[in-house]
Amino acid sequence: MQRETFSINWLAVNLQVDRRTLNKRLEGVARHGEAREYYLADVFRALAVTPPKVSELERTRARLAVAQAQRVEQEVALNEGELMQADVVLAWIDDMAAVVKQRLMVIPDHLVAKLEPAAGSVAAPLVRELIREALNELSDRSQRLSEPRRRRALGSNGSQGRRS
């Protein structure tokens, strides 16, 4: 079986492409026969859509655009009160922990006032010790949980960051 060749006009009509555009896209494709026509397989290879090569600069610009969009979204959420800065949240948690500790530490004194003097003097030190143990355990846990957050909030160079 002999391969058939096709003229630029026939290809333009049947592929529904402008003849001049098709001619430009087929530059460099071998022509055959007396009429200098194209093999269909060569045309299809030349017209095959290949993804454009993306330069490193374009990839960097795309990453930058994504980062800028995320930054704007974060700032909008922060301004609308949907997010809070990490340092503000950590300060609020520290304040709440101080209030809770203060309230817990007065429980033994209130216990002494409500019990008989002999029972209160025995119970108060025990309750105080249990409260201290619980506070120490909570303090250890909160430090382990908040240390990575504090490092992120401060940034790698120790300066205050705007993480949320």
Describe this structure in words.
The model is unreliable at 158-164 (pLDDT under 50). This protein has helices at 8-15, 19-25, 40-47, 56-79, 86-105, 107-114, 117-154, and strands at residues 5-6, 38-39. α5 runs antiparallel to α7 (117-154) and α6 (107-114) runs antiparallel to α7 (117-154). Helices cover 69% and strands 2% of the residues. The chain is mainly α and 164 residues long. A two-stranded antiparallel ribbon has the order 1-2. The chain has 3 domains: 5-47, no CATH class; 53-83; 84-164.
Task: Give short descriptive properties of this protein.
mainly alpha, disordered C terminus, 7 helices, 3 domains, single chain, rod-shaped, 2 strands, 164 residues
Spell out the helices and strands N to C: EHHEHHHHH
User: Based on helices, strands and strand pairing, what is the structural class?
Assistant: mainly alpha
Helix tally equals 7
> How many β-strand runs?
2
Computed CA radius of gyration, to the nearest angstrom? 38 Å
Low-confidence stretches: 158-164
Name the beta content range: under 5%
Average pLDDT reading: 83
Helicity range: 55-70%
Distance between the termini: 71 Å
Tell me, briefly, the overall form: rod-shaped
Number of domains: 3
Strand order of the largest sheet: 1-2
Query: How many strands, what sense, and barrel or not for the largest sheet?
Result: 2 strands, antiparallel
